[in-house]
Amino acid sequence: MSRIEQRFRELRARDRRALVPYVTAGDPEPTVTVPLLHALVEAGADIIELGVPFSDPMADGPVIQAACERALAHGVSLHAVLDMVREFRRRDDSTPLVLMGYLNPVEVMGYEAFADAAAAAGVDGVLTVDMPPEEGDGLVTALRERALDPIFLIAPNSGEQRVRQLAGAGRGFLYYVAFKGVTGADRLDVDDVARHLERVRALTDLPLGVGFGIRDAAAAAAVARVADAVVVGSALVRRIGELAATPERITTEVPAALAEMRRAMDARNDETAAS
């Protein structure tokens, strides 16, 4: 059983939803990342999504694009990201960690070599934004052979056959994109998300995480009512960018924002259980 599956089982037993923060590795400078990951766990993160910087992050809005540029300016490569994961694992052997990024750096390293390195570093899952399952057999096989979870995105317009295909190829959880567009946009419609998730749940037993457009504690709490996991990215990365000139503040102020979301999610869950 992977750390991701184990974490969702633990949360389900407690009737809690996973909080999944995303940050870009190496943003705003490499020395900040690992201390920030530990601080996010202390603030209530259940699973970590660690972004691999890429020069053309086509699914990401300007906030995460800028984070990638800041990290790449420091020469943060896929190898450097795996070194960060390895360092994180020296203190934390239980929090699931998912790499999120694009296919090109993985192809350059090679599927087998990447899967070996990711497993050795302590990665639990890999979400490759621009790799559809019908073209991903080589990487998916390499990941599964090393007990790593391939994770796929589901869009609002994904049809039944497509959802079945993604669910069949995926492990760990499925990442439902709350709207058509890029990360960081402000048009979250939780009722619409709930309707789509109901349709997806009829087709898979995998946990469903929801991301894109979750900007504050109220939105996180609302999504937690309908999803198994709440993925928060641009709201945190934006704050990291605002603090780039004073990086010593990042490991306190960014986790504080996440802790507010955790409290709101848990409060909403307690209210629902009591009603």
Beta-strand fraction estimate: 5-15%
Strand order of the largest sheet: 5-4-3-2-1-9-8-7-6
Just give the CATH class. Alpha Beta
Which runs of at least 5 residues are low in confidence (pLDDT < 50)? 180-185
Mean pLDDT rating: 92
What does this 3D model show about the protein?
With 275 residues, the protein is of the alpha/beta class. The chain has helices at 3-13, 30-42, 62-73, 78-89, 103-109, 111-121, 137-145, 160-169, 190-201, 217-224, 234-242, 250-274, and strands spanning 18-24, 48-51, 97-101, 125-128, 149-151, 153-154, 174-177, 208-211, 229-232. A nine-stranded parallel sheet has the order 5-4-3-2-1-9-8-7-6. Helix 10 (217-224) links the parallel strand 8 (208-211) and strand 9 (229-232). Helix 2 (30-42) crosses helix 4 (78-89), helix 6 packs parallel to helix 7 and helix 10 (217-224) packs across helix 12 (250-274).
Features:
TIM Barrel, 275 residues, alpha/beta
Briefly, what is this?
With 275 residues, the chain is of the alpha/beta class. The protein has helices at residues 3-13, 30-42, 62-73, 78-89, 103-109, 111-121, 137-145, 160-169, 190-201, 217-224, 234-242, 250-274, and strands spanning 18-24, 48-51, 97-101, 125-128, 149-151, 153-154, 174-177, 208-211, 229-232.
